[in-house]
Amino acid sequence: MTYTQIFIINLCLIIGLSACASGNKIMVGIVSQDKLMTDKKFVLDTSEFTLSDEDLKQVTRWPDDLHIDIYFGTWCHDSQREVPKMLNILKANNGISSQLIALDYDKSDPQGLAESQGIKYTPTFIVFMGDKELGRVIERPVQDLVTDITEMVAGY
Hey, what CATH class is 26-154 in? Predict the structure, then answer.
């Protein structure tokens, strides 16, 4: 092999490894929805998930003191499927507060929030009314997000 061939092969390896490394960056800690939307895996086309009229009625009836902590991994396919749906649902009722907590591969975050809540799977949606935990949706809903949360609220 010539010097030029070796140089080109090494250059291609360096460029390839750099591309892989930059593609593996993950968000960790409390993140804003705007920051999350910079990751194209979390941008949901509204035609992919829209609320039915009945779902919309249910969501607008949820109490204003409802809060949802959203634990997820930007690397997690379940999170990539469910978190955009949840964010779309939350748009239907501005009275509901939420917090996005991005986790690393070990399901941890710098603030220790996931550990304090015993998070083992992503995504995990923890639904609170005031200071009381009503329930959790872990990885995927039993029925669908709106129905599962509506049942938690009704059971309170």
Answer: alpha beta
Query: What is the per-residue burial (b if ≥16 Cβ within 10 Å, else e) of 72-107?
Result: bbbbbebbbbbbbbbbbbbebbeebebebbbbbeeb
**Per-domain boundaries in the chain:** 26-154
The tens-digit pLDDT sequence of the chain (156 residues) is 676 655 555 544 454 444 333 355 899 999 999 899 888 888 765 456 788 999 999 999 999 899 999 999 999 999 999 999 999 999 999 899 999 999 999 999 999 999 999 999 999 999 999 889 999 999 999 999 999 999 999 988
Crossing angle for the helix pair 145-154 and 77-91, to the nearest 10 degrees: 60
Backbone angles phi, psi at 136, to 5 degrees: -135, 145
Q: How many CA atoms lie within 13 A of 152 on its CB side?
A: 26
